[in-house]
Structure formats: C-alpha cells, structure tokens
Specification:
20% of the residues lie in helices and 27% in strands. It contains 5 helices and 11 strands; from the N terminus they run βαβαβββαβαβαββββ.
Length: 187
C-alpha cells in the first residue's frame, strides 16, 4: 500500500496494526466513529532518529512539510483551577496559546503543559502526542487549515511511527472545536 503523502516503506490501515499503537490510541481506533472510515487512518513506521522536522522531511518527503501537524498539550489556569486541552496546528505554525487558546479556555493564564503532565495525562510518549486517543473530557482545539487538508501527518502516541489521517476527521474527534486563528505564522 502506498501512502497518500510522503514516502514510507510500511503503510498499514490503523485497525490492522493496533498492536503497534499505545493503548489510548488503539482504543480510539478500535471504537472509531465518524464520517471517515477507520481504515483511512494509516499507520506509517518511522525511525525516531529522524524525528526532527527538517531531517524527517528530507528522509520521508518534502510534501510532508506542508501536511504535518503538531499536537500540543496546554494548561489554562484560573483561580487555582487548571484546565488541560490539546491544540492541533500545522507544523509551519504555532498555537496562539496566550491569545486564542487562553480566551477559549476562559483562563487568566495559559501555557504549554509540562512534559510530565502531557505524558502522564495522555498516556503517550513526549514527541509523539496525537489528537486520536486524548482524554474525551479535554477540549481539542483544531486549526481550520488542518481540517482542510486531504491527509495530515500526526504523531501516533509513540516516538516511533506516525499516523496519516484525513484532515476532516479531526473536526469529528471527541471535544473537537475548529477555531479560527489558532495557528499563527512562525517568525
């Protein structure tokens, strides 16, 4: 099977390789609902040594630069209460944590969650966090540019391997809110 984007040696529909996925991601694929069939979520084996974006794109395909998204965990704080959420933005942008995210969460302060919090609360490896399999109670803030892509490269929950997912599927995940202005240009 060929990947719709990038150049990967191993491409497998995610429901056929649940043992390659960590528990929360495998459970989300196993119980998948929505207009995009679970078989359209593809797992590609990647080498963690090439995780850096520039090296990754050089190795797996230049077309991935414009079709990759980062999922980051943020913490919004207000009056001693902390709300965790995830943001999904294109890799060529950054999440507007102090503006759009803070306002959406109704927080006085918002920041990236610590590595221990992000991995502990998601059950995923740092550097591989994916929007598929996040805690259902969390808001998932998604930039519209991600939803508009035919396929998007995201983490698989582990440092090894990635998922290729039709962009529109992200708008249908539990807690998803497509939020204008979430991703802002870097630079």
């Amino acid at each position: 099977m060929d990947a719709p984007i990038g150049h990967f040696d191993t491409v497998t529909p995610a429901p056929e390789c649940l043992d390659e996925l960590i528990s929360p991601v495998a459970d989300a694929v196993r119980n998948w609902q929505g207009s995009v069939p679970a078989e359209q979520i593809l797992y590609v084996d990647t080498d963690p040594r090439w995780a850096d974006t520039a090296v990754f794109v050089e190795h797996y395909g230049q077309d991935l630069l414009e079709a990759s998204a980062n999922c980051v965990v943020v913490a919004g704080k207000r009056g001693g209460e902390t709300t965790l959420a995830a943001c999904l933005v294109l890799s060529t942008t950054r999440a507007d944590v102090n503006g759009v995210v803070r306002r959406r969460l109704g927080a006085r302060k918002a920041s990236f969650a610590s590595m221990d919090t992000a991995t502990g609360e998601t059950g995923m490896e740092y550097g591989g966090i994916t929007p598929i399999g996040l805690p259902e109670s969390w808001p998932l803030l998604v930039d519209p540019a991600v939803v508009d892509l035919p396929y998007v490269l995201v983490g698989s929950g582990r440092r090894r391997g990635k998922l290729l997912v039709p962009g529109k599927a992200f708008a249908e995940l539990p807690g998803a809110v497509v939020l204008e202005g979430l991703g802002v240009a870097v630079g």
